[in-house]
Structure to design on (619 residues):
């Protein structure tokens, strides 16, 4: 394991609390008046530079795949000949969307990403290694951050993995936060066993009533109180952020001085080596409204914080998060804010399960009766003035009025009540990647959600999240968002076996990106553990990674059933229960899907090999 550098401390106050500063001259909210100016200049520049650096990566990857009757030089010639290279025009534009699903999704999702990484020799041998390095965007529902910031990984390593963790007091509530790990090197490669020992600690007890958790609560509350005394709204999310930071941020001050915007100062970001991370969440108007198709989607990225709604698409620099604005501008007496984007706070706000109506301090006290009474007596009520309110709404008095039910729902809300992005049913965070101006050609949707009858049994996906997004795009308000047709999850989806194999959606719908759907299913072991399960044995973790490798590469491990560390059925029984592994060369078919939109733009017909692949995998 490489040396772990300290995270970058950038808080202007020198602590967790933000400060007020004079607003920049002519400061105003950036309004994306049409789909053609949705991207900010800094995001656009980042993707352009990363795409420029990926030409050789594409050539290396395609040489390994060795597609039949395919000219690699011709494929990249436009990118090489142009003075500038544009993703989605000159080279394929790939995004990865990682679902929620607790620790089940943590292990399984990381296993799939490991199988797409060119630093994994087994992945290279299977023909899937390198796809991760070609990816321009990666999205998560809850707390998408880079652990080269928040865990301080040696910048000489080269693995990129996306890791989920439970987010509330060391994984004690419902779901999902995740963070990116950007390691860059060909040597000193950390094993997943060491990751578990140093980062995940899944084999340790994670009880919220255990002393290791309980003893942190007073300091967490005191930190929130300091922010409150500085004149800023606080909530239980501010308490949660302290606990999260202790597990994610390699910092002597437990992350109190580390900002989400610090991602911009990392070597990986400066060198355009990492996918552009987008963390998304939704909100409840006034903290109580139901979440539905019309609920705004908010996104955090290293450059901006923004709202994505049919009647308002607007952004502010993430550095100015927390500033009070009216109609997109500061008022005469109001100053701007710096340091509000504390990394732990952003993660906690975007994974806010406390946003559910009725989940107030009393229900929290019922969850933790003894700890609540002893620890929060005399200080809790003073420290936390609202269980949900988190930050100023920078889009106050912007967008169309919602009086007729069609405008921006939070136009009249001075504060935002951010909520876990999955509450609306879109457990796969596809929405940011579907924005037309981002020009995604392909989205790899990795689904570890639990769509069975119970989150405690049969926790496998059945495509519900895909269907939810599809139905949303059929609403009149979202007619500009193109998404391929998805079969009904109540019948056709499972009848076709789409829940037990990779599938391509939108192969011939050239207005939408191709969705490469990789669901969690049985390959060599059961991976349907309960969402509430927080402790895993090392044998279970190893088995999860082998199963995920099988999903991503469409190969089965050797028939050594003792490699998993626990009793298993006979190999014949396992093979009978597994989803299908086809004889078609999966690595070539996967490559066909990744390049198809660019092939079309280059006016090159699909090869016979790719036509056969699409006949097999397109749903």
């Amino acid at each position: 394991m490489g040396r772990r550098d300290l995270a970058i401390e950038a808080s202007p106050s020198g602590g967790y609390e933000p400060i007020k500063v004079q607003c920049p001259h002519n400061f105003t909210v950036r309004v994306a008046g049409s789909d053609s100016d949705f991207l900010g200049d800094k995001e656009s520049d980042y993707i352009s530079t990363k795409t420029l650096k990926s030409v050789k990566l594409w050539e290396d990857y395609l040489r390994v795949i060795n597609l039949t009757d395919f000219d690699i030089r011709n494929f990249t010639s436009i990118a090489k000949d142009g003075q500038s290279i544009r993703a989605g025009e000159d080279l394929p534009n790939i995004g990865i969307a990682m679902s929620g699903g607790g620790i089940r999704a943590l292990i399984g999702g990381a296993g799939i990403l490991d199988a797409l990484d060119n630093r994994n020799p087994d992945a290279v041998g299977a023909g899937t290694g390198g796809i991760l390095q070609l990816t321009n965007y990666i999205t998560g529902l809850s707390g998408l951050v880079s652990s080269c910031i928040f865990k301080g990984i040696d910048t000489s390593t080269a693995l990129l993995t996306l890791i989920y963790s439970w987010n509330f007091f060391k994984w004690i509530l419902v779901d999902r936060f995740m963070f990116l790990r950007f390691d860059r090197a060909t040597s000193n490669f950390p094993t997943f066993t060491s990751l578990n020992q140093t980062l995940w600690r899944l084999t340790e007890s994670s009880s919220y009533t255990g002393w290791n958790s309980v003893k942190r609560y007073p300091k967490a509350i005191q930190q929130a109180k300091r922010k409150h005394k500085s004149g800023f709204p606080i909530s239980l999310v501010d308490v949660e952020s302290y606990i999260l930071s202790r597990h994610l941020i390699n910092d002597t001050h437990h992350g109190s001085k580390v900002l989400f915007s610090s991602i911009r100062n990392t070597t990986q970001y400066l060198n355009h080596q990492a996918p552009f991370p987008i963390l998304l969440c939704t909100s409840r108007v006034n903290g109580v409204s139901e979440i539905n198709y019309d609920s705004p989607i908010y996104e955090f990225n290293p450059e901006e914080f923004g709202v994505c709604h049919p009647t308002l698409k607007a952004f502010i620099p993430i550095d100015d998060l927390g500033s009070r604005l009216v109609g997109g501008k500061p008022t005469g007496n109001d100053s701007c804010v710096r340091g509000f984007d504390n990394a732990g706070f952003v993660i906690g706000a975007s994974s806010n399960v406390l946003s559910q109506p009725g989940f107030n301090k009393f229900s929290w006290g019922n969850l933790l009766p003894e700890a609540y009474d002893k620890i929060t007596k005399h200080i809790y009520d003073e420290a936390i003035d609202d269980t949900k309110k988190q930050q100023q709404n920078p889009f106050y008095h912007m967008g169309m009025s919602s009086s007729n039910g069609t405008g921006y729902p939070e136009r009249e809300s001075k504060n935002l009540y951010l909520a876990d992005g999955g509450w609306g049913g879109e457990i796969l965070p596809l929405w940011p990647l579907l924005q037309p101006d981002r020009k995604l050609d392909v989205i790899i949707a990795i689904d570890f959600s639990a769509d069975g009858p119970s989150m405690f049994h049969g926790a496998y996906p059945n495509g519900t999240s895909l269907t939810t997004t599809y139905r949303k795009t059929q609403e009149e308000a979202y007619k500009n968002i193109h998404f391929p047709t998805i079969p009904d999850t109540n019948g056709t989806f499972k009848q076709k076996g789409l829940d037990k194999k990779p599938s391509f959606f939108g192969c011939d719908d050239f207005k939408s990106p191709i969705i490469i759907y990789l669901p969690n299913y049985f390959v060599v072991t059961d991976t349907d553990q309960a969402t509430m399960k927080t402790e895993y044995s090392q044998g279970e973790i190893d088995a999860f990674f082998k199963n995920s490798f099988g999903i991503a590469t469409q190969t089965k491990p050797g028939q050594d059933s003792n490699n998993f560390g626990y009793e298993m059925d006979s190999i014949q029984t396992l093979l009978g229960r597994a989803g299908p592994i086809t004889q078609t060369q999966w690595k070539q078919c996967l490559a066909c899907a990744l390049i198809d939109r660019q092939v079309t733009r280059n006016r090159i017909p699909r090869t016979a090999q790719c036509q056969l692949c699409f006949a097999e995998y397109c749903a």
Q: What stands out?
A: The chain has one domain: 19-617. Residues 1-5, 143-196, 357-388, 559-578 have pLDDT under 50 and may be disordered. The first strand starts at residue 19 and ends at 21.
